[in-house]
Amino acid sequence: MESNRRIFIKRTIGAGASVAALQVGGGASDARAQTPGVRGFDHVALPMQNVDAMLAFYRSLGMPITEGAQLCSVHFGTQMINFHRPSLWQSGTFTLRAPAATPPCGDLCFVWDGTPDALKAMLDKAGAKIEIGPVNRQGGRRTTGSSLYTRDPDNNLLEFIIYGS
């Protein structure tokens, strides 16, 4: 008959191997093993009218920008906004867009990871006029946050939501 100590060691090693197999081999925590489906946004694309003002505004919000001949990409976190330059969205040959999309057509909500005072200071520095806020809103995280609303130079509506910790 095995001692209690040997039984305990065998069970512990067996349990550890099972956990390791799940972590390495694709258990429930492995996104690749999950049912295929939409996982989130990669980017949004919007037409842009006031190129210089728009790029200066988004830079003043601390967002790095990659400029190209046809579009400019604004980066934040792991997401991006592609702004189509007027020469692209006004072209009769560019069809990979919503047919009626003309500036302003964006209504975007950004998650702010900071204090309300820091958000207000950043928006003031960018020359953004707060239209409404702070107001409580139900967000995409299915919980309530505090939001401020403003507009960019093309008049797209921008919401900045702060979730409690």
The helix/strand order is HEHEEEHEHEEE
> What is the number of strand segments?
8
The number of distinct helices, counting runs of at least 4 residues, comes to 4
Tell me the radius of gyration: 24 Å
Roughly how much helix do the residues carry, as a percent range?
25-40%
**First-residue to last-residue Cα separation:** 54 Å
Summarize the main sheet. 4 strands, mixed
Provide the spatial order of strands within the biggest beta sheet: 1-4-3-2
Q: How much strand?
A: 25-35%
Low-confidence stretches: 12-28
On the 0-100 scale, what is the average pLDDT? 82
Q: Tell me, briefly, the overall form.
A: globular
Q: What structural class results from the helix and strand content?
A: alpha/beta
Could you give the topology of this structure?
Layout: H1 4-25, E1 43-47, H2 51-60, E2 65-67, E3 71-76, E4 79-84, H3 86-89, E5 107-111, H4 116-125, E6 132-138, E7 144-151, E8 157-163
Parallel strand pairs: 1-4, 5-8
Antiparallel strand pairs: 2-3, 3-4, 6-7, 7-8
